[in-house]
Design goal:
Number of strands: 8
CATH class of the largest domain: Alpha Beta
Mean pLDDT: 82
Low-confidence stretches: none
Order of helices and strands: EEHEEHHHHHHEEEE
CATH topology of the largest domain: Structural Genomics Hypothetical 15.5 Kd Protein In mrcA-pckA Intergenic Region, Chain A
Helix content: 25-40%
Radius of gyration: 31 Å
Distance between the termini: 63 Å
Number of helices: 7
Number of domains: 2
Largest sheet: 8 strands, mixed
CATH architecture of the largest domain: Roll
Strand content: 15-25%
Length: about 260
């Protein structure tokens, strides 16, 4: 008979930064979670291990101070991604190229030519429907209507400095400008914090950067825990995960009775 392969679990030591009065050491819990768990499941396991209600937002941070960390995994980010699904994506290189080249052409002249075409097309579509007595007056107004539809008076022609506009007209100028745009975008991305969500993110992903992360639960009350990855182990048979494998100290009260 083939021996069944034991289940695997990831093990984390979670230390509260809040000590209960009268106890010398900070309370901790050693927690086992399924090998395929995500960061959301780890957060739920941590909160449950300290007998808290899982009723607030949270995140994992690579520094001691969550508000100054360079890398963060937050529930807020999952919500932001959902909100952004309907928003426009970052412009493609082709879209950037068109935006730059529009600074070179005489947009007023182009739009004036377009107004002439639109006036003619409006006349073809509308004039047959206009009573004879109004036709001449309506036809005279169509050019104004076409200009209003195209917002001809709102065209801005000073989006780029003159030197940039001149460079775009030279051979290879567009390619050079696109390279400058790409370099500026990359520099901006480097300076920004690295932000990810927690749902669907493998539970060990952050710990490849550093073995200990700050877990913050409930922004405002700022319950903080130091979470250290201790490796992959065989899970106890017939035990439901996540599970507290070891513990020390009394958990602080999430909602103390101040009366």
């Amino acid at each position: 008979m083939t021996k069944k392969t034991p289940r695997q679990m990831h093990v984390f030591k979670v230390v509260s930064r809040v000590k209960v009065p009268g106890e010398r050491r900070s309370p901790y819990r050693v927690l086992g979670v399924p090998h395929d768990a995500d960061l959301y499941a780890l957060a739920a396991g941590i909160v449950g291990a300290f007998d808290f209600d899982f009723d607030h937002a949270f995140g994992f941070f690579d520094g001691k101070d969550p508000y100054r960390s360079g890398v963060k995994y937050e529930l807020f980010h999952d919500a932001d991604v959902q909100l952004m699904l309907g928003e426009a994506a970052a412009p493609s290189e082709a879209q950037v190229a068109i935006s730059l080249l529009l600074e070179v052409v005489d947009r007023r002249k182009v739009m004036a030519d377009t107004t002439t075409f639109l006036t003619r097309r409006l006349g073809e579509e509308l004039l047959p429907l206009v009573p004879e007595r109004l036709r001449a007056e309506v036809e005279a107004e169509l050019n104004v209507v076409a200009a209003d539809l195209l917002d001809l008076d709102d065209i801005e022609t000073d989006g780029l400095p003159p030197g940039f506009r001149e460079a775009l007209t030279q051979p290879g100028g567009l390619e050079q400008m696109l390279q400058l745009y790409g370099a500026a975008s990359a520099a901006g991305d480097t300076d920004a914090p690295v932000e990810r969500g927690v749902k669907g993110v493998p539970v060990t992903e952050p710990f490849g950067r550093t073995p200990t992360w700050t877990f913050l639960f409930d922004y405002g009350d700022d319950w903080m825990f130091d979470v250290t990855y201790q490796g992959l182990q065989d899970a106890p048979p017939r035990v439901r995960l996540p599970r507290v494998l070891d513990s020390l100290g009394t958990a602080p009260e999430q909602y103390p009775d101040w009366e």
